[in-house]
Design a protein that fits this description.
Layout (H helix, E strand, L loop, with lengths): L8 E7 L2 E6 L5 E2 L5 H10 L1 H6 L2 E3 L10 H13 L8 H4 L3 H7 L22 H4 L1 H4 L13 E3 L1 H14 L7 E8 L2 E2 L8 E3 L4 E4 L2 E5 L2 E6 L11 H15 L4 E6 L6 H9 L3 E6 L3 H6 L1 H14 L3 E9 L9 E10 L4 E2 L2 E5 L8 H9 L5 H11 L10 H25 L10 H9 L3 E5 L4 E5 L6 H12 L10
Parallel strand pairs: 6-12, 12-13
Antiparallel strand pairs: 1-2, 3-18, 4-5, 6-10, 7-9, 8-9, 10-11, 13-17, 14-15, 15-16, 15-17, 18-19
Helix pairs in contact: 1-15, 1-17, 3-5, 3-15, 8-9, 8-15
Length: 477
């Protein structure tokens, strides 16, 4: 963050014979010298410009100093750089580096209309909160907040960004769907107690494909975890098939999503599914022979033993038909004992054997939890402290936009480097958090980066690769 030069001097404890003193005379210094990498990602992808297109701006154009795209960019860049709250932007608004990143051609704010605003170019919290607090029914005649957000348009943008990330259509994609909990501690709308998580929380629904996020939908927690999953998947899959009509799609989820309406929808719409199935006494009897075989093998070797089998299973009331069920009969050494697992699928056994389907297809769904964790722990998707439910949904989508931005940098820019598989928070600490002195002149903005920065060669190569990419940003679709 930028500081103003003063002559105040203050001291610290001596080190040997030397005095240790400090002064506020370093000039304009930012702690985010590597943030301009994100600006290059935006230049090639148009992620934030597509996000900004999901707003209806009813403000008087003659009075606007911060466009919607600049406000959205400031907020999303702030999350990517580790600033979780709107309050942080009352300090960040002094930073000429962030102003440059957002796209202001006057990063020092010398040309602001109001004299009181000069020297500060970026928006403060009272301006930024219009993005999340504008009522759904706002229009041009509204008095204060007039920047209305269209959630459905943004949901389409997330899927479009996934499609745009592929130069050629893939042959097969696997869509992971899962719910997580988001603890809340105030009187937010939609607050309910969830018995499983033992707290008051929201129950967001996520859909991912590999490292891509296609949906982040906030929901109250007084519902079944699978509620709304058919509607979300049908929208996403329809949108994907409009661009990739021949792609093979697999839906993967845990047993919380093993619901008749979801299975039947997949079967009727030519979608494969691999979904966990909860154990019951009848199923355990059906795999009793395999469990005994696994137990004998475990006792002989002292190691965990697995036996896989295929079943044709139908419940007595809740299922409309028999379906292929893959069972893993596993016995673990010591006191852990039996560990059976079951998966229901419509993928034919001729295409994937029981063992391959479970170990290579179903078990891989665990990586989705890393994508959710990155957004909640690294990009503050759980910062849902607004009273209004719509405002909290907006914050969840802000975190998703920040994730998509950083993920593109990781996937495209960092491929083949030591940070190729790094989490968002690690990328932030190693690439973005660089001390930089910012000098602004009529013709240039110059960053004097810390001489002791340990990743100089990586940052130099990464910046050169991003700057020299000539691909234009995709047009919004």
């Amino acid at each position: 963050m930028a500081t103003e030069c003063t002559q105040m001097t203050f001291g610290f404890q001596r080190v040997g014979r030397r005095e240790v003193v400090a002064r506020f005379d370093g000039g304009r210094i930012s702690s985010d010298g590597g943030a301009l990498l994100l600006g290059e990602v935006e230049r090639h992808t148009g992620i934030l410009s597509q996000f900004a297109g999901c707003f209806d701006d009813y403000r008087d154009e003659e009075l606007v100093e911060h466009s919607v795209e600049q406000l959205v960019s400031q907020r999303v860049y702030g999350l990517a750089l580790g600033y979780e709250d709107l309050n942080d932007h009352d300090t960040l608004r002094h930073d000429p580096l962030l102003a440059t990143l957002v796209g202001h051609d006057d990063p020092l704010g010398r040309k602001r209309r109001r004299k009181a605003d000069r020297g500060v170019r970026l928006a403060g919290k009272s301006t930024l909160n219009r993005l999340e607090l504008t009522p759904v029914g706002a229009k041009a005649s509204s008095r204060y907040k007039k920047i209305r957000f269209n959630v459905k348009a943004y949901e389409r943008v997330l899927t479009n960004l996934f499609i745009q990330a592929h130069a050629t259509p893939p042959k097969r994609i696997v869509l992971d769907i899962d719910a997580t909990h988001d603890p809340i501690h105030g009187n937010q709308l939609g607050k309910f107690f969830h018995g499983y998580y033992d707290c008051h929380c929201y129950l967001p629904l996520y859909v991912t494909c590999g490292s891509h996020v296609l949906c982040a939908k906030l929901r109250p927690s007084n519902i079944d975890g699978a509620t709304g999953s058919v509607g979300v998947l049908s929208r996403i899959i329809e949108q994907i098939r409009c661009s990739w009509p021949d792609v093979e799609i697999v839906v993967r989820a845990d047993s919380g999503f093993c619901r008749e309406n979801l299975l039947r929808w997949c079967e009727e719409n030519g979608v494969y599914y691999v979904i966990g199935l909860a154990k019951n006494a009848r199923l355990l009897r059906m795999i009793g022979k395999q469990m005994h075989q696994a137990k004998l093998a475990c006792e002989q070797t002292g190691q965990a033993a697995r036996v896989f089998t295929d079943l044709d299973y139908r419940t007595k009331k809740s299922r409309s038909r028999s379906r292929r069920t893959v069972a893993k009969a596993e016995h673990l050494p010591g006191t852990r004992g039996e560990n059976p697992r079951l998966v229901v699928t419509n993928i034919p056994a001729e295409e994937l054997s029981a063992q391959v389907l479970y170990e290579e297809c179903y078990c891989a769904r665990g990586d989705m939890e890393n994508r959710i964790k990155e957004q909640q722990l690294g990009l503050f998707a759980d910062r849902t402290s607004c009273h209004a439910f719509v405002a909290n949904q907006f914050r969840l989508l802000l975190a998703s936009a920040a994730y998509v931005l950083v993920e593109h940098l990781r996937r495209v820019g960092l491929a083949g480097t030591e940070l190729a598989d790094a989490q968002v928070s690690t990328i932030r600490h190693k690439l973005f958090k660089i001390a930089a002195r910012v000098k602004v002149s009529v013709r240039r903005v110059v960053l004097h980066l810390a001489s002791g920065y340990p990743y100089q060669s990586l940052l130099t190569r990464l910046a050169a690769g991003l700057v020299n990419r000539d691909a234009p940003a995709p047009a919004p679709t």
